[in-house]
Amino acid sequence: MEKPDKPINAVRYSVIVPTYNSGHTLTACLQSLTNQTLPKAEYEIIVVDDGSTDDTATIVAGFEVNYIVQTNHGPAVARNQGVQHATGEIILFTDADCVPDHNWIQEMVRPFQDAEVVGVKGTYKTKQKELSARFAQAEFEDRYDLLKKHATIDMVDTYSAAFRKDIFLKMGGFDESFPVANNEDTDLSYRLAAAGYKLVFNPKAFVGHTHQNSLLNYLKLKFWRGYWRMVVYKRYPDKAIQDSYTPAVLKIQTLLMAISLAGVPLMLVHPLFLDGLVLLWGIILLSSLPFALKTFKQDKHVGLIAPGVVFLRSMVFAIGSVCGMAWCIYKDKINLK
């Protein structure tokens, strides 16, 4: 009797996890990816080590994954490298500090039953007790509520993302000029949306995550969010006005704070500017009340601190955005020489 032909590759989905010195979280991530509801033959796990110096290699050796090592070039390069080795028609991304739910892959790929869908965005969840982490989760929940109102979206974060591989490659993948894990996914999302591709949100596809657990670290993160977002807005200026992911009030708060900070030196010239400063800051605090009240219903302590954190957030967003704009202007001048 003749032996049957070798079965065609059954891998339909490729999960790519970039990692850099994430040994303390990587085990939980890989354990969860190994124990998904989909048959293991249908998906592969690709870990791209971006030059780690910790015990990442030892940890990965305990799992059945495709392990790729590169010199340190940042997560955008690492993710693109993973796609080059992917055999699935759908590529999924999560981070080494995330713990995907047991049916994460199944939920992430479900929207692709619609042939027009090119990208899917999932969500974060956390079990943390720290106020800063709970505030960060409340922020995400507020954004998720906004995304639910849109049939199509323009933002797919890499902590829980999926794309059709052929379109991803056609669009050039992640821009490797982004040196850190910050807004390279925003850039790709805007690029896909501008090209007319359909991106959708699936709130049922979630990964567990550990948010920043101190106010200082949270504010540092927001500073760099503001900085790198300006780099993206320079390419897609219309998104600075409106997008599907960012509440309009947040952009208004950031703008008002930037104007107020610019007026601080003038306060020394004439007391009238102090009145204007107080007015702008008062508007920012008042504009935070709807979010604070909404959050209070779910988490009283976070709701109470929300106005103060929103005020500080708008301040670091504004400073980061100004620094990002200054860098873009400087780069343009250098390129013109």
List the helices and strands and how they pair.
Blueprint: E1 13-19, H1 23-34, E2 43-49, H2 56-60, E3 66-69, H3 75-85, E4 90-93, E5 98-100, H4 104-109, E6 117-125, H5 131-147, E7 161-164, H6 165-170, H7 184-194, E8 198-209, H8 215-235, H9 248-267, H10 272-287, H11 289-298, H12 300-336
Parallel strand pairs: 1-2, 1-4, 2-3, 6-8
Antiparallel strand pairs: 4-7, 5-8, 6-7
Task: Provide structural commentary.
The protein has 337 residues and is of the alpha/beta class. The chain has helices spanning 23-34, 56-60, 75-85, 104-109, 131-147, 165-170, 184-194, 215-235, 248-267, 272-287, 289-298, 300-336; strands at 13-19, 43-49, 66-69, 90-93, 98-100, 117-125, 161-164, 198-209. Strands 3-2-1-4-7-6-8-5 form an eight-stranded mixed β-sheet, sandwiched between helices. Helix 2 links the parallel strand 2 (43-49) and strand 3. Helix 8 (215-235) crosses helix 12 (300-336), helix 10 (272-287) packs across helix 12 (300-336) and helix 11 crosses helix 12 (300-336). The longest helix has 37 residues, at 300-336. The N and C termini lie far apart (74 Å). Mean pLDDT is 92; it is low at 1-7.
Features of the shown structure:
alpha/beta; 337 residues; eight-stranded mixed β-sheet; disordered N terminus; 12 helices
The overall strand count is 8
Average pLDDT rating: 92
Helical percent range? 40-55%
Strand order of the largest sheet: 3-2-1-4-7-6-8-5
Return residue spans where pLDDT drops below 50 for at least 5 consecutive residues: 1-7
Tally the helices: what do you get?
12
Rounded to the nearest angstrom, the radius of gyration is 22 Å
Measure the end-to-end span: 74 Å
- Kindly report the oligomeric state of this protein: single chain
**Sheet with most strands:** 8 strands, mixed
